[in-house]
Amino acid sequence: MDLQAYLQEADAVERDGSAALESAADTAALEAARIAVLGDRQGRVKALQEALRSISKEDKPAAGKRFNEARTKLESLHESRKAALSRETSGKPREDLSLPGRKAWRGAKHPVTLVIEEIEGIFRELGFTIALGPDAETEWYNFGALNFPPNHPALDAHDTLYLEGGGLLRTHTSPVQVRTLQKFEPPIRVLIPGYAYRRDFFDASHAPAFMQIEGLCIDEGISFVDLKATLNVFAARFFGAAKTRFRPSFFPFTEPSAEMDVQCGICGGSGCAACKGTGWIEILGSGMVHPKVLEAAGVDSERYTGWAFGMGPARMAISRYGIPDIRILYDSDMRFLEQIAGSAGDR
Ligand code: DAH
Fold first, then answer.
1. Using alpha carbons only, what angle is made at residue 150 by residues 144 and 155, rounded to the nearest 5 degrees?
2. pLDDT band at 91 (very low <50, low <70, confident <90, very high)
3. Ligand 1 near 172 CB (within 6 A)
4. What is the 8-class DSSP label of residue 162?
5. Residue 1 carries which DSSP code?
6. Minimal CA–CA distance to 208: which of 166, 175, 169?
7. Nearest C-alpha to atom 2 of ligand 1 is from which residue?
8. Exposed, middle or buried by CB within 10 Å (0-12, 13-18, 19+), for 58?
9. What tens digit of pLDDT does each residue of 175-225 get?
């Protein structure tokens, strides 16, 4: 390259480079311009420096002088643009700090979970521990060991899904009574929460898969008095100073059997839609554990006696929160769930 052409090229590099650096509107654009103009690999200043090698010996001092001028000018222009841009951005905040903050989304417990935890808390204080069993059961644990005779009408209410290989989805949490009795020596006091499954239509008061809580108390000398006293303490704690009543009933695995009603908290017993005009809400089935159940589990029924109960926490949630239809509990509708989560606080 001759000197004339080199000087022209130096002018062009200086002119284009200055324009690129000056027009960069933010630090990212300035950095891109720096790489294009002053970059070590493909920068135009670098190319200009390389072109010096093709200049003849006598022209080199003049060409080198011009190169240094151009490079120094572009470098100092880059420095001053960089300083100016950082002054601009640090001087004024980019976000509008006066905007209200975005509220963090906070999860909450489901109303049925709240009820179960509250019930567990009450029974824990009465000396009960928690026991669990499998949802997929054998016919023996679900029915046989619980003294359901084959073809007994009580089985009609317990239709369920039968699994390949002979198992079934348990229709109640009562089989865990037997499993617990097989595993532990009395005295036994356990609370057994878990899912139960039935071939029921999904309607205002039934769900085909629903939670149950079973209770079991076995020791020497346990009588029906203990059953009534314990369940009355529970009802008083859970429902406030509510009245209870026991009605004779039938379950194959208890003898005698009783259902417990609690006076309706919504109408105070005068009768309303929530209690279907009766003034009472049915909350659980209970009874003295049948000797045949104790024997099936290998427990000496001459030495030990005890009582059991089974209740549906979804039904309790309904009466607790005045919910008209059980299906709402399964809808996952946040507008509903948030109301209860909000009113229940951090229980
Ligand atoms: N397992 C019964 C059911 O699901 C409920 C029940 C009744 C459980 C009486 C008990 C009991 O432990 O004593 O219908």
1. 85
2. low
3. yes
4. B
5. -
6. 169
7. 310
8. exposed
9. 999 999 999 999 999 999 999 999 988 887 788 999 999 999 999 999 999
Average pLDDT over residues 8-26: 92
Cβ of 174 closer than 6 Å to ligand 1, yes or no, is: yes
Q: Give the C-alpha separation, 206 to 196, whole Å.
A: 12
Ligand 1, closest atom to CA 157? 14
Question: What gap in Å lies between CA 77 and CA 71, rounded to an integer?
Answer: 10
| Concatenated DSSP letters of 2-67 | -HHHHHHHHHHHHHHHHHHHHH--SHHHHHHHHHHHH-TTT-HHHHHHHHGGGS-TTTHHHHHHHH
Beta bridge partners of 211: 195
174/300 Cα distance (integer angstroms): 19
Its pTM stands at: 0.70
**Candidate from 309, 311, 315, 316 with most ligand 1 atoms within 8 A of CB, to mutate:** 309
- Residue with structure tokens 């009580």? 154
Rounded to the nearest whole angstrom, what is the distance from the C-alpha of residue 312 to the centroid of ligand 1?
10
- SS3 of 88-145: the string is HHHHCCCCCCCCCCCCCCCCCCCHHHHHHHHHHHHHHHCCCEECCCCCEECHHHHCHH
Compute the distance between CA of residue 222 and CA of residue 302 in angstroms, rounded to an integer: 12
d(CA 341, CA 196): 25
Taking the C-alpha atoms of residue 66 and residue 12, their distance in angstroms, rounded to an integer, is 12
- What pLDDT band is residue 346 in, cutting at 50, 70 and 90? very low
List pLDDT tens digits, range 65-80: 999 999 999 999 999 9
- pLDDT, one tens digit per residue, over 254-274 is 999 999 998 887 788 898 877
For the CA of 171, the closest atom of ligand 1 is 4
